[in-house]
Amino acid sequence: MLPVVVVHGGAGHIPKERSEKSTEGVCSAVRAGYVVLKRGGSSMDAVVEAVTHLENNPAFNAGCGSVLNVKGEVEMDAIVMEGKTLGSGAVSAVRNIANPIQLTRLVMDKTSHACLTAEGASQFARSMGVPEVPMESLITEYARMRWRKNLVPDANPVECQMGKMGTVGAVAVDSEGNVACATSTGGMLNKMEGRVGDTPCIGSGGYADNQSGAVSTTGHGEAIMKVTLARLILFHMEQGQSAEAASDLGLAYMKSRVSALGGVVTVDPQGQWAARFSSHQMSWAAAQKDTLHYGLYVGEHFTQGIDEPLLQGI
């Protein structure tokens, strides 16, 4: 069953005119992560590679497609975690960084800390030689349009979040059975300056443990934090539930307890995987045994050869 990599492009409502780009984006990202695994790379290498691809794709709410805060600026959160030693690195409220997920890897590998925030994270990035980019390079016209629309005093808060592309993430198991997760986001549309969501929080935005599996989450960050969704799903797996059943149980609990929708990608150390969501849509893709799996709507599951051009679903 090994190796395997699974990615998501965010849970929510994806406008029809943007759904094709979303599907193509997750499939491209999962292929990139799978190439790393096939060449003998680690699960951590694979999830960072996959999420870097998603951060570089303006169709997603991460990196160069990030949504804007109330001031019209980009502030991003990200996390990585590996299951062998429970090593983790995260950044929150970072600006002027093209690939926050790569910065989280440096936090994990080069510091004794788990999370760096805002200016402290920027100082660390500079010390590591990570180039700063102009904020304008991270802002798309689509993000600016959504920001302006949501500044209207009587804007509907539910409709405000519709149409945003979601948080991105990946989970993987390598040929040695080590699991890893990576999650990256621009956060919530028109959020307060300095708002930090679930993504950089261990157990909420992601969790990885070789004894149970790995999870990357997407959805309403405040709700995900309240139920520590990633860790909750792995708790169910520790109780004997499959990746799919555990994912469904976690999402159902979040819906019943705090009335929130979301989505996850999940793997266990044996290579069983799941892409599950309670929202209307979640773009996702998986690669295993040279087969590409992908979907967008509940119950949708297309398969084809890993190197074939996308034939269905878009």
UniProtKB/TrEMBL annotation:
Enzyme class: hydrolase
One GO CC annotation: cytoplasm
Protein's UniProt keywords contain Protease: yes
GO terms, biological process: L-asparagine catabolic process via L-aspartate; proteolysis
Position of the signal peptide: none
MF terms (GO), sorted A to Z: asparaginase activity; beta-aspartyl-peptidase activity
Active-site residues, record numbering mapped to chain: T167
Pfam families: Asparaginase_2
Protein family membership: Belongs to the Ntn-hydrolase family.
Name this polypeptide is given: Isoaspartyl peptidase/L-asparaginase
Species the sequence originates in: Stegastes partitus
